[in-house]
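Weekend entry, working from home. Most of the wet-lab plans are on hold until the incubator is repaired, so I used the time to fold the two sequences that have been sitting in the queue since the last round of cloning. Logging both here for the record. First:
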Amino acid sequence: MARPIVLSNGQMFVGLDENALVHDFYYPYVGLENLTNARSLQHKIGVWVDGIFSWVDDGTWDVDIDYEADALISSIRFVSNNLNLTIHFQDYIDNNSNALIRHVTIVNPSDKEREIRVFMHQVFRLSNAGRGDTAIYVPDENYILDYKGRTCLLISGKFESGEGFDQFATGIYAIEGKAGTYLDAMDGELSGNSVEHGGVDSVIRFKKIIQPNTTASFDYWILADNNQRDLERKNRKFMNSDMTEVMRFNRQYWQNWINKTNKQIPANNKLSVLHSLLIIKAHCDYRGSILASGDSSIFNYGRDYYCYCWPRDAAYALWPLMRLGHIDEAKKFIDFARDTIHPDGYLLHKYQPDRAIGSTWHPLIHSQRKELPIQEDETAITLFLINELYESTQDTKIIEEFYSSLIEPAANFIASFIDRETGLPHASYDLWEEKFLTSTYTVCTVIAGLRSASRLAKAINRYDDSLKWSKTADSIKSNLHLLYHPDGYFRKGLLVNIDGSIVYDDVVDISSNLQLMTL
């Protein structure tokens, strides 16, 4: 399922579930290396007050989850009528360091003084097999270190008044018959077990006496780096900082990014548009990948996940950003595409955020004939995106930078990847990744891609290329009638058999008609 809250800074990506618990935790790429154990347990949050303990996901709390209006900062409210307590979370990922920060405000609405204890649990899976991790308490600076090799996480926090967490426990999670150390919190006290290895989890406690009708706040954070020394340096900085200023800085960062929007957004749609922009931005790795989804829950019933960069998905996500004035993300993706394009000029099915080839179910053989395991529309739409970027900026340096390494090979490939029997693009997999054929959608995308490449070539005086690609686009369009059904609609597609015969797929596909509208 989709995560109600996603947070990111271009390197760290965190997804919170419907109970505002950490479900996905990616680092050091947006969408690569999920460090949580989310397939079996989220990071629990427990509350002890007046001798009663409760998990916030036990069904007794009312949970309201949203974002702030103009920043990638959550606004989450837990209300317990049983405990007569309200807790407000504001979560964000620091843009100056790789840290998930949860600013927690406890509201005591009663007319009596109360001691309130909040337990923050974390369960990571740093090693692939869920073994060999270490969780250790470091007393000199009062933090938990969770590490495996070069992946290191530091867990700590402090109240506004300066004191940190007062109790801790590390332990074994989901091995040797152990459920997890989070259960240690349920009596309101933690054991103080200071180290464990294997499959591990940990809990820390924040305790405060809160006066009647007043509040108390603390900040809890998880810092990520590749070594303990740098983590300690970052942790000291937080310990010596006014954390309200840290949140204010991050809020200003997002507001500054939103203010790059160069179009007037109607007031009745503004909040939805701003949230959509921020969520798209959250899926952008600063190295160019655009993540399809960071949700790992599909792993519970499927073979794979959506933590890949599909060039098509990336283009559709970036197009509205560009039209609203946000171009940096598109520039980085085009650089990503240049680095991943095959020497023959095509982009593959999908890629990992680190530019490695993603998994695929598209074979290299179809009907006893060698075929490319691609979706040709992904190569074509990348050309379309580059032209849209150029149209937005009128900067020919973009064309010159990518012409020989991306634009020219991609345009030459799709201009030559054509069946002589039909004059249409050769078969590849459709955008739904299910059928191998020459789909109407892909044909239209190829026409748009070639026209885009022609405009780009003309802008830098490459007239021969411009004319060649323009003529090929016109030729393909002249054969679109082969995809038109006598009943008055465009077929899903067709397939040219080895013997030259043509088989039609007469399914009505919404993608066909939507794409035809762009021609």
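Second, folded right after the first finished:
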Amino acid sequence: MAVAAFVLLFFVLPATRMTSPVTLTYSQFVRDVAADKVSTVTLNPSGSATGLLKDGHGYTVVIPQAPSPGASLLDQLQRNKVQVTATTIGPSFASQVLSWVILLLVLALPGYLWYRLSKRGAATGGGLAGIFGAGQSKAKLFEASNVTTTFADVAGYDGAKAEVAEVVEFLKRPDRYERAGAMPPRGILMVGPPGTGKTLLARAVAGEAGVAFFSVTGSSFVEMFVGVGAARVRDLFAEARKRAPAIVFMDEIDAIGQRRSGTGVVVSNDEREQTLNQLLAEMDGFDVTKGIVVLAATNRPEVLDPALLRPGRFDRQVQIPLPTLSDRLEILKVHCRGKRLDRGVDLGVVARGTPGFSGADLANLVNEAAINAAHDNRDFLVATDFDQARDRVILGRREGSNVLLPDEKEAVAVHEAGHALVAALVPKADPVAKVTILPAGQALGVTEQLPLTDRHLYGEDYLYDSLAVRLGGRAAELVELGQGSTGAANDLASATELAVRMVREFGLSKELGPVGYPEGGPAYLGGGGAGLSSRPFAEETQGLIDAEVRALLLQAEQRAVALLTTERDKLRRLADLLIAKETVDGADVYAIAGVREPDRLDQGTTVAPGRAAASATERQAGTAPTSVAVAEVTEPGAG
């Protein structure tokens, strides 16, 4: 306001006390000089002249350069006793002052910045790293009023929320636990596949706790300068101590927490190891930190250093698995807020049709469904939108069947009819939801099987039926077309992988016996994890494994061929229906097969009914153990 007033007065006040100058022509100027009306004149090098008339008014005039007035004008001015002055070309006082100011700023501004950055560097660890702020922590501080996410915004995962909620209780009511002699956990490590909501759960903890919350990623600790990572860890915990009680959240902690190199290792990362050592010392070193709880998230727990995982640093590991059926339903409800759904949309059916989807996958599914509705120029979502979105997410964009030749369309229909019919006829397979011969992605046709409930244990009966279903397409080609095709390549690979696990890991081979050679620990990023070695068994064992896998696959193929040969007319009817309609619902498959469509009442608690019945008979005779042997797998069955 002061500057604005100054500028206003600077332009207004001179105009109120000075008369406006008069502009004269050169001829009028000469006449005024002759009439003795001019008092002063100032000649400028540019050819203009200014001055005062004897009546007090100012004037301006332009003196022509050619023809030059020469000495005649000056003589006339002198005869009329006009005071004559002249100016020369040169810098003004203001321009000289401005030049000196610029020169001084060139010297003073860099010096001032260097001084301030040097002080900051000395306070944060010293050296050039501190000068450029490299030693400062990159953590973002969220005050309690700035975080709006709470546990109510995290759908499902009641067990995981209960585990993490104890941290909030420790920070809010420490006296309650101190009376019982309980110590709060130093750290909680959240482990799970990508997209399951680990970061969202940490934000909810920040919103519930009402304390300072520092959020940082593991990759932000290490940059180009040596020692930066350790300096940033020190600065992070120093800031957290000032604001204790506080929560420090480290996302993707595997970036700095990987297992340190052993003795004799040629390649190592000293900078990352220094950062890890500093983190270990800050979490549980000589100077015990109080009032700070560290939350961390990773989807690579198998690579973390054992010293980081021991009690006293990360006291608890909270598993954040893929959501169950009920969790998926709650997550879908959250993501469908603000969207208009048709009355025919059943989110329970959508949740049942998305086994293995993470929270991020479900959010993408709802978004794809909304995109489909927008393509059809609708502002509400129908059930078809969710079906198309699921196929788009899993398989890719669906093409028309006209991309197939007539012979190819016939072969694909027979192949998919074989999968569907075997799945309908075997007792323990997952129910058939839909069969289509519309190509999508790399699949020429798809038989969708959706479990009625989430499975955690898989019995032998289920696994054997799953092998038969996976080889049902090839068996249908052999029965109906008399030859196989390349369309069964993916089925063979999938069936072989399952058979290998049944023999190597699950102990379901009578020849090999109850031995297990797993591929490795949990690998949430896919790939199966690294095995114990390239081959942790003898060459003879490998030959026996190969023979057992081959026997399992031959047995499954022969079973599928026998089923389809007996029901060949039903196979032909289903294939013709697929050719005519291109997409067939699961109810039509069961109608053709003459089998009642399964529902939830068919899902008993027995994992392997055949083995369980035999065990019950043996127990009555007093010759069997009291437990039922089951096989545990980590991924869904046939699909």
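Plan for Monday: verify the second prediction. Residues 93-123 form the longest helix (31 residues).
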